[in-house]
Design goal:
Keywords: Membrane, Transferase, Transmembrane, Transmembrane helix. Helices cover about 35% and strands about 30% of the residues. It has about 180 residues and is α+β, with helices and mostly antiparallel strands.
Length: about 180
């Protein structure tokens, strides 16, 4: 099966693939990651202290601390490694009309989202390295309201070239 066949039924007849790539999957440490890691380690550490204290009293009550210990470790390591793991399971495609983001994540399955690139699309280019180009956003819900998540091609190698192609699509000059 050729690459063009795998896109049959997804792309318009006059739509062509201009670029495909994957984000950089390396672990990056940012300020918000450090806070999450420290909180998670503190949470797990307190759970260990509680379990040891409960175990001294005898019985099996100490095992209730295992869930808290697990949550603490998940916060600590998920905060540090979660985004890199997600990027390793993500693929990008730019066509003459749209940007596609595909993911294949365990428990969530495969997703393919498309975002039209029009003259009114706001492109936010961060030269990096590695470069990122944001072109949309999604609102996500949490307990007390919503928050904005930028959507785009994160941490790509040849960002300047992809940005140039996106600007050409906006001007109606895409190849």
């Amino acid at each position: 099966m050729s690459e063009a066949d795998s896109w049959e039924g997804i792309l318009d007849k006059d739509e062509k693939i201009l670029w495909q790539g994957m984000p950089d999957g390396r672990v990056t440490i940012r300020a918000k990651n450090i806070v999450t890691v420290l909180f998670g380690l503190g949470f797990a550490g307190f759970a260990v202290f509680w379990m040891v204290t409960a175990a001294r009293a005898g019985g099996q009550f100490w095992m209730f601390g295992l869930i808290h210990f697990g949550v603490g470790l998940a916060l600590a390591f998920g905060g540090a490694f979660g985004s890199a793991w997600r990027r390793r399971h993500t693929w990008y495609t730019l066509t003459s009309k749209r940007a596609f983001i595909a993911t294949d994540l365990p428990f969530r399955g495969r997703t393919l989202k498309s975002y039209p690139i029009t003259s009114s699309t706001v492109l936010d280019y961060d030269a990096g390295p590695p470069a990122s180009i944001m072109f949309n956003h999604e609102m996500r819900r949490r307990k007390n309201g919503h928050y904005r998540v930028d959507v785009g091609f994160e941490r790509i190698e040849n960002g300047a070239e992809v940005y140039r192609m996106m600007r050409e699509i906006q001007k109606g000059q895409a190849a």
